[in-house]
Amino acid sequence: MTQRSHVELFGDNLWIVHMKRRLVCLSITGVLALSLSSCTKPKPAVTVTAGTSSAHTKAICWSPEVALSATTCSEASLTQAVSSPDIATVKVNGDQTIGISVDPKVAEFGWYAIVNGQRLNKSAVTSTYYHFTSPFTDIPANGYDLQIISQSQQTGARGLWLFKLVGN
């Protein structure tokens, strides 16, 4: 008895099935590659704590490689974030210690905090944690804005987070 090939035994059907499987595998691989390449990295987050109150939020604007520009962080998006009822809020007593914890990506080139329009530290913080004592004894009903700004390697900011400090 002589050996016969698969093609002789099953005809062209085996070859067609094999090619269909290859096409399906290649299609799935292509779709996966496209979907993974279109993924954006998540924005880093910042947490602010005071006593038992804390808030955690992702960046309003974030540019992982270069300084923010008007296209990456528009004035309209900032205005909307500040006036949003969903702004991250922390309850603070008059002279309470407030802690700020940032993602390591935020600390990479330094960051600083601004409360009510005043920068808290002269030089940039390069650690992932910073704390300060609330400079306000009386906090108004509408509270104070706390901005966290991450510096870029070039001149300018690469990220912005907004919080509201309100009376306890």
Model description:
The chain has 168 residues and is α+β, with helices and mostly antiparallel strands. It has 2 domains: 6-37; 45-167, Immunoglobulin-like. Helix content is 26%, strand content 33%. The chain contains 4 helices and 10 strands, in the order ααβββαββαβββββ. A hairpin with a 2-residue loop joins β1 (45-50) and β2 (53-58).
List descriptors.
168 residues, alpha+beta, Immunoglobulin-like, four-stranded antiparallel beta sheet, 33% strand
Strand content: 25-35%
Rg, Cα atoms, Å: 27 Å
Task: Find the CATH superfamily of the largest domain.
Answer: Immunoglobulins
Low-confidence stretches: 29-38
Q: Provide the structure class.
A: alpha+beta
Instruction: Give the N-to-C terminal Cα separation.
Output: 93 Å
What is the architecture of the largest domain at the second tier of CATH? Sandwich
> Can you tell me the number of structural domains?
2
**H/E series, N to C?**
HHEEEHEEHEEEEE
* Largest sheet entry: 6 strands, mixed
Q: What is the level 1 CATH name of the largest domain?
A: Mainly Beta
Cα shape: globular
The CATH topology name of the largest domain reads Immunoglobulin-like
Strands, count:
10
On the 0-100 scale, what is the average pLDDT?
80
Residues in helices, as a percent range: 25-40%
Count of alpha/pi helices: 4
